[in-house]
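Contributing new records

If you add data, match the layout below exactly. Sequence lines come first and carry their own label; structure lines follow with theirs. Keep one chain per record. Anything else will be rejected by the validation script.
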Amino acid sequence: MKRTLVTLGALCLILAGCSNYVQASAPKAAFIGDSITAGHGASSEQTRWTSLVSQKMGWIEHNFGRGGTGYVTTSSREGCGLDFCPNYLGMLDDVVSSDPDIVVVAGGANDMAEFVSNSGPVSRAITDTFNELRKRLPNARIIAVGPFARDITSWVIAFDLVVQDAARAIGGEYVSLIAPNPVVQKDMFLADGAHVNDSGHAAIADRITSVLHRLR
């Protein structure tokens, strides 16, 4: 037993410390999404849902959330703080450059108005996003997180199903925030009716981690 402990200790020294080794070997997770993914409404970066999920799952987080964006929707300084922020498909160069083991794609609220007006282009953009992700990251674990809303309309349900189908078609996993029951309660929304507080971020994180633990 002592020889084993000495061997492990020596190995840790070679690797510049056990804690550094564990951190370096943890899977890298890239998060694509909108302002909720970026952490809007959370009181700190540590309390946004992406960071809570990463902590619970033992992932190294790379956050590519951009306010105002979606599967088809781009944004600008008012929404994301930059002159231009691309849609999810346009973020893939940055995502792939981070060499992730896991990619989590979330959101859709910013696409909802266009989806209601003409669902075809939005549905194709959702499918194209997941197809391109699989093409460019063939070995990555891909997880889709559906939209949530203060009021769950038939359009929100339809959008949820489109994302689910697109993710599963490329061998991805899916987490719904509205079924079997809405995870975000009305008292978790901020005054704008779109973003959520710390309790909302925690509820989203709890739903995602509970589903992922069941899937594994």
